[in-house]
Amino acid sequence: MRFDTVLIGGGLSSLVCGILLQREGKKCLMISAGQNALHFSSGAFGLLGCMPDGTPVDAPFEAFSALAPSHPYRKIGRTLCESYADAAVPFFASCGIPLQGFGRRNGFRLTASGSFKRAWLAFQDVPFFSSDDALDGKRALIVTLDGFLDFYPEMLSDGLRRRGVESRCVSVHLSCLDALRGGPGEMRSVGIARILNRETNWKQFGREVRALLDGEDLVIVPEVFGLEDRIVNEWIAEMIPAQVLYVGTMPPSVSGIRVQRLLKNAFIQAGGTFLMGDTACDPEWAPDGTVRCIHTANLGAPGIEADSFVYAGGHLFGRGIESHPDGFSDPVFGLDVVCDADRASWVERGFFQAQPYMGYGIGTDERFRGLKDGRTVENLYVAGAQLAGCNSLQEGSGAGVAVMSAMHIAADILKRTENVGE
């Protein structure tokens, strides 16, 4: 088998890059081992919420110059990052994913603990505001479902109360969920969302909540609606005479799963081939040091050949890099991992401190081509969470790095192939 580009990983960066390439007529194959980080999504995309030292950031692009030269944003450059940011909203809209944001500035999403966290863009049904005092002085009705253990209304209420929001917690019993409560499965968000996707069930929920209102300005409910289509969230909101806010629960994320499905569908509809439940392995190298082909655990021989390879396997969570007692490694291509040699430097003692190991990743050149033994692999790109130079968890930059690096790599591949064809 031969493709123009093989993408390894099925997460945000791989999907964005694959869609962009496929829409430009490149024949792409995506190899995905299983579920990805979108299934744990908060419903918002972070670009740069704070600096590496913890300083909050309101204007991300203005802060790029203070980042280390090895940071992915610095490699791309502010001007290109801004152009990719401008392209992001229409790109996701073209995939059926409307996003909201505040231009060049961060907004604030409401979290399940009642706090506000900076973010760049948010899914349309996520509570997202231009300031962190947007709800001050309001009254809220916080609604949960009987038996649902992944949403904590009292904790949310406490967080809001500290911000001057008066709140009241109630629980709704829906008989349609009784099978989940008494069966071998669990009352998890996705199982609930599948049942509440039926019109009779979400309408019952809307009627129950409407009857419980007692003059509150806000109704806050767990994000267990709209698994297949976010229009359900809008219909429920129309039934309730108050502002309805859908707040994220413990994973899995209903909105994240919906977005992953929409992106996957956009890739396939553009003509891409999606290989699910398989892992890349055993690359074959050409004499010039480029990747000639890759194998997979299920397909075996012969290998899959391509002009370009995009490696977006995730961080430690996705096994894009692996840790060992004496260091870190790339399990597929053996690329160079940038990390501290001294094991004692991998972690900080404080649980809430920024952990150095979260900033380790694969080293690349300025075009995000991977380094192997210090040398650039000309046709192997690295995207997203695998990249060295940033601690996305600390910075709140995970989705931003994924999207920006994916767009940058797609542009580089298209430019390179155009030059070859001239």
Instruction: Tell me the β content.
Output: 15-25%
CATH superfamily of the largest domain: FAD/NAD(P)-binding domain
As residue ranges, the low-confidence spans are: none
| CATH topology label of the largest domain | FAD/NAD(P)-binding domain
- Give helix % range: 25-40%
For the largest beta-sheet, the strand count, sense and barrel status come to: 8 strands, mixed
Count of alpha and pi helical runs:
12
Main structural class:
alpha/beta
- What separation lies between the terminal Cα atoms? 26 Å
> What is the overall shape?
globular
Radius of gyration: 23 Å
Please tell me the overall pLDDT.
93
Number of strands: 22
- CATH top-level class of the largest domain: Alpha Beta
Number of discrete domains = 2
By CATH, the architecture of the largest domain is named: 3-Layer(bba) Sandwich
Provide the fold topology:
Elements (H helix, E strand, L loop, with lengths): L1 E7 L3 H12 L4 E5 L11 E2 L14 H4 L8 H5 L1 H17 L4 E3 L5 E4 L5 E4 L1 E3 L4 E2 L9 E7 L7 H9 L4 E7 L5 H5 L6 H8 L2 H14 L5 E5 L8 H9 L3 E5 L6 H16 L3 E4 L3 E6 L5 E6 L7 E8 L10 E3 L2 E3 L7 E2 L22 E2 L6 E4 L2 E8 L9 H4 L2 H24 L1
Parallel strand pairs: 1-2, 1-16, 2-13, 9-10, 9-11, 11-12, 16-22
Antiparallel strand pairs: 3-7, 4-7, 5-6, 5-8, 14-15, 15-16, 17-18, 19-20, 21-22
